[in-house]
Predict the structure.
Amino acid sequence: MKRIARLRNRIEEWQSLAQRLSDARELAEMGDESMRAELEAESAALDKLVYQKELNTMLSGKYDRGDALLTINAGAGGTDSQDWSAMLQRMYLRWAERNGYETEMIDLTEGEEAGIKTVTISVSGRYAYGYLRPEKGVHRLVRLSPFDSNNRRHTSFTQVEVLPQVEDDSDFEIDMSELKIETFRAGGAGGQNVQKNDTAVRITHIPTGLVASCQNERSQTQNRENALKVLRGRLLEVKQQEEEAERAKLRGEYQKAEWGSQIRSYVLHPYQMVKDHRTNYEVGNAQSVLDGDLNGFIEAYLRQQIGEKKS
C-alpha cells in the first residue's frame, strides 16, 4: 500500500506538471500583453520544477527516494579533526534546512577539547538518501589551525558515512541470534547530564563485526531501536557492495575498493577553494559551501554517474 501511494503521488505530480505546461502554452499563444508578468512568473516556476524533476530521474536506486542516516567520524588529526567534524555536522544540517529535510540527532560523542568524535543524524524527506549518497567518503580540510599556538597550517580528515533507513524489516531482515547487545552508562558533560542507569546501547553483528551504538536518548528501549536502525543500514550497505563487486567481476573490470582517499578537499589557506576529486567540480567560495551550499557538488556527481557533464 505504501508503494502504491508513492507511485500514485508521482503520477499525480507529473500530470499536474503536464497540465501547467499546457496552460502556460495556451496563455502564451493568446498574445495578451497584460498577462506577460503572470506568464513570466509561471515560466520561471516551471523551469525550476522541471530542473528538479530532471535531477530526481537520476535517483533510480532502490532506496534513493527514502530517508538517510548520516554519520560523521573524526579521523587522524586530534582536536583539529574533531573540530572539522563539527564543521561538517553544521554544513549538513544547514543543507538539510535549505532543502526542506527534517533532521534528528541519533547519537553524539563530543571531543575532549572541542568538536565531536562521531555523530549520527537521521535525515528525513523524499530523496534524502539519493541526494546525500554522493557525500559518502573522506573529506579533507586545509587551514591555519586555531588549536596550534604557532598558527601553522594543518590538514584534517573526516569520514562521512551515508546509509539508507530501512524501516520495514521485510526489506532486510536481521537474525537476532547473531547480535550481541550490551548496555552501558551514557557519558555526559557532568552534573545532571550524567546518566545513573545503563541506558546506552551497543549492538555488534557477530558474523561481520559491525557495531552500532546509541546513547542520546534517556530510554534504553529507544537507544536500542536507534542502534538497530543504524546497524540495519550498515548491513544493507555491505550487502549492496558485495552485489556490486559481483556484478563488476562479471563485467571483467572489478577493482578492489580502497578506503581512505579523500573525495573532496576544502582549502581555507593559503587560498579558498572546495574541489571534488571525483568530478573536478570546484567552488571558490568555501564559506558558502560550509554554510550548506552543496547542491552543485551533488548534481555534478549524479550527472557523472549517467555520463553527463554539469554545465
